[in-house]
Amino acid sequence: MNPTVEIIRDGVKLWPGYFDLPAQQSLLQAIRSGTESAPLFTPKMPRTGKEMSVRMTNFGSLGWVTDKENGYRYQAMHPVSGEPWPEIPDLLLNLWSDLADYPHPPEACLVNYYDDAAKMGLHQDRDEEQFEAPVLSVSLGNDCLFRVGGTSRGGKTQSFRLRSGDVMMLTNEARLAFHGVDRIYPDTSPLLKQGGRVNLTLRRVTAG
Ligand code: SIN
Ligand code: FE2
Question: How far apart are the CA of 108 and the centre of ligand 2, in A?
Fold first, then answer.
């Protein structure tokens, strides 16, 4: 665990290489076991039904989902299996208690899988009932080019690489910052044999 933190801009904190390779492997193992009962699914955009290029699943009491009919939301069940999501792995609950500075545990861990061609457009995380808790995320696998801006669309943005084991937080003035993933860099990490990148995003949904 590397506790060194960089401030990218106000409210955007980065812990480069927070998780070393053995810890990344343990996380990956926990994700693999969770996805056995909660397989990755292909999310669809509200209204248009257009497929997103990432595949996703969740851990925790609430998971973030999206589809054509009902749009962005949190729900307690996997949309395909109808089963509750698996529990959030302890390593991630510990990460949250170490870094989040929030009195309640995360309720949602969104698991995004990017193949080497996937990306994610600029958006805000704003489907939660409160924005007091930070958004805390972990990168695994290939590097990506991450983009972050301010809280209004069309504002100035900056881009930087996120690497396997990095932890990033959006908090305070950046809790509602626009952010996205411009591209994945193939063959930049040995962690995922099939290539691509996994992002784990921890969020508190309710005020608690
Ligand atoms: C997201 O904003 O949902 C994902 C961010 C990331 O992949 O780093
Ligand atoms: Fe996001």
Answer: 13
| Residue among 107, 110, 106 nearest 61 (CA) | 107
Q: Which of 77, 97, 20, 64 is nearest to 200 (CA)?
A: 64
User: Can you tell me which atom of ligand 1 is nearest the CA of 162?
Assistant: 8
Per-residue pLDDT of 28-78, as tens digits, reads 999 999 999 999 999 999 999 999 999 999 999 999 999 999 999 999 999
CA of 51 to the centre of ligand 2 (A): 17
Angstrom distance (rounded) from CA 138 to CA 159: 17
- Token match 């995320």: residue? 137
Question: Helix or strand or coil: residue 111?
Answer: strand
Measured distance CA(157)–CA(51) in Å, rounded: 26
> Domains of the chain (ranges plus CATH)?
6-203 (2.60.120.590)
